[in-house]
Design a protein that fits this description.
5 helices; binds 2-acetamido-2-deoxy-beta-D-glucopyranose; oxidoreductase; Jelly Rolls; eight-stranded antiparallel beta sheet
Length: 274
């Protein structure tokens, strides 16, 4: 006989499984109906998937010798004040060189020519993307850049909130392709299931019309130049603003704070009305 006690763990597994396959949490509106228990799934504790996927992004021993760049307030602009800090930032210059951006797009297109772009990873909000773990050169470049520039940048930007900025870890990342001519041209408003998210523009802003990262709280989208970075609290409502012509590639990464599950849940809950 099948009892509820037997089914419950199974249901939990199914929920977890579908969550892991849908790391982008989709919400179409704000208000009471969205105060669903998603926050419980934000920490590593509740996302065994992140515990595994973050392994791919752990720095190699040969990149740990990379010199860390000292970041200052002059390196970025901040928006959306909240408590002692800001929840959205954009860099005032590139973190990835034009050559690095080109090589990332090249590798993504080369690999996609063999295995295709993924369009099913994010459930109701499909993106046309390719996981960075499938792109060895990009993964190597990302790890080195995380060490030298990206983690120092995020640490500085979110220092008013982070209990320990040295515990930031990328847990997932992919290259997304927006194409006005077909496929995906926008990404509907949603919340990510991590602590911080960032995206890197891989194209010049003149390569497309429209685009940028749209934020509900700003009622506006932020457009950046090739190699620049937009970072934000994962839990705030945002989307990929539609492009009306051209093509736009971005690199998107989800970042967690290792060992701070309770703090992560609290942070997510605090910002999810924004
Ligand atoms: C976008 O940028 C990449 C290099 O970063 C380039 O290969 C590609 O042609 C650009 N796309 C368009 C539509 O200009
Ligand atoms: C949001 O921006 C649009 C124009 O971009 C404007 O028409 C609209 O009134 C704004 N909404 C709010 C709530 O400010």
């Amino acid at each position: 006989m099948i009892t509820t006690a037997m089914i419950a763990p199974l249901l939990e597994l199914l929920v977890l499984h579908s969550f892991i396959n849908n790391p982008v949490l989709a919400f179409t509106g704000v208000g009471p109906s969205t105060s669903f228990d998603w926050a419980l799934k934000v920490s590593e504790l509740h996302i065994p998937g992140y515990r595994e996927t973050k392994q791919h992004f752990i720095l190699d021993t040969d990149t740990t010798s990379n010199e860390e760049v000292m970041m200052t307030h002059a390196d970025y602009s901040s928006l959306l004040p909240f408590q002692n800090g800001h929840l959205i930032h954009k860099t005032n210059g590139y973190l990835f060189t034009p050559e690095e951006c080109s090589s990332i797009v090249q590798e993504a297109e080369d690999v996609a020519a063999r295995m295709g772009w993924t369009t099913t990873r994010h459930g109701n909000y499909p993106t046309t993307d390719i996981p960075i773990v499938e792109l060895p050169n990009t993964l190597h470049l990302l790890k080195s850049t995380l060490q030298s520039r990206l983690y120092p940048l995020l640490r500085h930007q979110f220092s008013p909130y982070l209990p320990d900025g040295t515990k930031l870890r990328v847990a997932d990342g992919f290259i997304v392709k927006y194409d006005a001519a077909g496929g995906q041209s926008e990404l509907k408003p949603h919340r990510d299931g991590s602590v911080l998210s960032f995206n890197v523009a891989l194209n010049d802003s003149t390569d497309y019309e429209g685009g940028g990262t749209w934020f509900h709280s700003l009622n506006d989208s932020i457009r950046i130049e090739k190699g620049e970075v937009v970072s934000h609290a994962s839990g705030i409502l945002h989307g990929g603003h539609g492009i009306s012509s051209g093509r736009r590639y971005i690199m998107v990464c989800f970042v967690i704070l290792e060992g701070y599950d309770t703090w992560s849940m609290r942070f997510y809950n605090n910002v999810r009305d924004l």
